[in-house]
Design brief:
Layout lengths: L1 E6 L2 E4 L4 E9 L3 E10 L6 E7 L4 E3 L7 E6 L4 E6 L8 E10 L4 E5 L3 E6 L1
Parallel strand pairs: 2-11
Antiparallel strand pairs: 1-3, 3-8, 4-5, 4-9, 5-6, 7-8, 9-10, 9-11
Length: 119
């Protein structure tokens, strides 16, 4: 079993910064990639940033230039540095880990962490 735990959410003023952390632990053979999603009230969950095992990064247009995803591979930990935050960034932020056990791939999710940006 694999556990994914996010931390670092909170309340911040518009224009401020926040860093989210996500750690995957448990029976992990290999992590192929990790990512950050967010879900605002009444909206679908959307992918905002991802990073592969080789370090390749992808960002949603809405966060490009403001958010940075990074990873500590030896710790199965990923971070999301969020700068120039806007009220529309308010959402529950979820982390996922895509794992491989030698035969099949699995996706695990964290419980989510709330980010609220006040205007």
């Amino acid at each position: 079993q694999v556990q994914v735990v996010e931390s670092g959410g909170g309340l911040v003023q518009a224009g401020g910064s926040l860093t989210l952390s996500c750690a995957a632990s448990g029976s992990i053979f290999r992590i192929n990639g990790m990512g950050w999603y967010r879900q605002a009230p009444g909206k679908q969950r959307e992918l905002i940033a991802s990073i592969t095992n080789s370090g390749s990064r992808n960002y949603a247009d809405s966060v490009k230039g403001r958010f940075t995803i990074s990873r500590e591979s030896n710790k199965n930990t990923v971070y999301l540095q969020m700068n120039s935050l806007k009220p529309e960034d308010t959402a529950v932020y979820y982390c996922n880990a895509d794992t491989w056990d030698g035969r099949a791939g699995y996706r695990y999710w964290g419980q989510g962490t709330q980010v609220t940006v006040s205007s």
